[in-house]
Structures are given as structure tokens and as C-alpha cells.
Design a protein that fits this description.
254 residues; mainly alpha; two-stranded antiparallel sheet
Length: 254
């Protein structure tokens, strides 16, 4: 397992969080081992580096199972461990996603099935990729990463591309959380307005009418968990109420 959701990339993020909290060198050493495992399993091609994480038409782009999530983990690892091989691998992963980018759609493909779709979600597509590019810009001050984040933001505020449910993983509130995060990272409060509008509309549609919240599991009504259900919806409203005190859980800072 290699990806952010259930593999070495996600383990790196958790290990770095614990290392920063406690300073145990074995945690950092283990994170480095996971980083080297990722490098050893990379598909190294002319268009950049990618990873076979799940069954798909091609190696996936995106945050949850794709190249963006692995690149983010490697970049965080480089920032702490200062092993240049991790920075180089992260940049190669970003290069892979750039070769996949469709300039006409201004979007990244989801290679999980055919025909290829171009979603605007946290788990797959522009929102998750935008999160990683904002973080890469914070670390590297790379203008190309910032430009890609702005492409993601433009798709996120397009109502025609809004998902049907309100979960964090692949719903409207996960997308809105990206807008909150962008307002903090870029110092641009204009992104808060569309996030607030999504929150108000959802309150009027569901909470005030005492209707079930559309969660992320198809045909399952409300579910209690974080990424797909009510806990994540509650988290989003707490975060919107006080973004400075409530951190971005979708892209935790190690």
C-alpha cells in the first residue's frame, strides 16, 4: 500500500506529526523508510514519476490514491529530513500530473475508469490537487504550483461542477474547506464568501427543514463518520465559524 488514504504516504504524514510533537528520532527514521519505499516503487517515465496504487486505466492523479498525495508526503518529508531525493521525487510527481492536465478543460483526469472524467473533488481531481499545490507553494515558493492552485480554485467556485452530496471526501463541504484554506494561505478573504454561501444554502435546505444531510455514501442517507458523514459536516461548520482556531483536517500540517 503506497497511497495517502491507506499506505506509506499517509504513514509519512502521521509519523511526521508525531515526530514534531515528541521529537522521537525513530519516528523520523521510519518516515524516511516509508519515503524510500515509495521511491523504490515509483514508475519512472519520460512524463514524470507516478505510482500504481489501485486498479486504474493509468497511474492515478489526485490526492487520495494518486500522485498528488504521494508528492505532498514526500515534500513534507524533505522539509524535515532534508534528503534531496524526496524533493526530487515530489517534483517528478508534480511533473507527471502536469503532463496529464487537459488545458482545454482546465482540469486533471481521473484514471480510475473509462470514459475518463475530470472531477472537482478532494479525493480525486482539482480540489485535492489544489490543496497539495498550495502546500507546495508554501514550502518551495514555486510559482507554477501557485498557478495550478488558482486553476483548482476557479473550478471549485464553478457551480456547474459542484458535487451532489455534502461530505468532506467528495462533496460540497470538502470543496468549500479548500476555499477556506486558500483564504488563509494566500491571505485573500474573497475565497471565504463562496464557502459561506455553500454553508448557508445547505443550512436552508437541510438543517432548517429538518431533512437528512446528503452524505458521501450513495443511497445510505446519513452516516456518522468524518470523511463521508455527519462528523465531517459538523467539523466544516466549526471551521467556518473560526478558521484561525480550527485547522484544516483535510490537509493537516505535520
Amino acid at each position: 500500500m503506497l497511497d495517502l488514504i491507506g499506505g506509506s504516504a499517509g504513514a509519512i504524514i502521521a509519523l511526521l506529526c508525531l515526530y514534531r510533537a515528541g521529537g522521537n528520532s525513530r519516528l523520523l527514521e521510519t518516515a524516511v523508510c516509508h519515503g524510500d519505499l515509495l521511491l523504490s516503487h515509483a514508475t519512472r517515465a519520460d512524463e514524470g514519476w507516478s505510482w500504481k496504487t489501485i486498479r486504474a486505466v493509468r497511474n492515478c492523479t489526485g490526492l487520495s490514491h494518486g500522485t498528488a498525495g504521494i508528492a505532498w508526503a514526500l515534500l513534507e518529508l524533505w522539509q524535515i529530513a532534508r534528503r534531496d531525493r524526496f524533493r526530487a521525487a515530489a517534483l517528478e510527481a508534480f511533473r507527471y500530473e502536469r503532463t496529464c492536465f487537459d488545458p482545454h478543460r482546465q482540469a486533471w483526469p481521473d484514471f480510475r475508469e473509462e470514459p475518463t472524467e475530470y472531477p472537482t473533488l478532494w479525493c480525486h481531481g482539482a480540489v485535492g490537487i489544489g490543496f497539495t499545490r498550495l502546500r507546495a507553494w508554501q514550502i518551495l515558493k514555486d510559482d507554477q504550483c501557485l498557478a495550478e492552485a488558482r486553476v483548482s480554485l476557479a473550478r471549485t467556485i464553478n457551480p456547474a461542477l459542484a458535487p451532489a452530496n455534502h461530505s468532506l471526501c467528495h462533496g460540497k463541504l470538502g470543496n468549500a474547506d479548500f476555499l477556506i484554506h486558500a483564504s488563509q494561505v494566500l491571505g485573500e478573504e474573497t475565497w471565504l464568501a463562496p464557502a459561506g454561501q455553500v454553508a448557508e444554502e445547505a443550512m436552508n435546505l437541510f438543517e432548517h427543514r429538518r431533512l437528512p444531510w446528503p452524505c458521501g455514501l450513495p443511497n445510505a442517507n446519513e452516516t456518522p463518520d468524518l470523511m463521508l458523514g455527519l462528523a465531517g459536516i459538523a467539523y466544516f461548520y466549526l471551521r467556518l465559524s473560526d478558521p484561525l482556531r480550527i485547522p484544516a483536517v483535510l490537509l493537516p500540517q505535520p
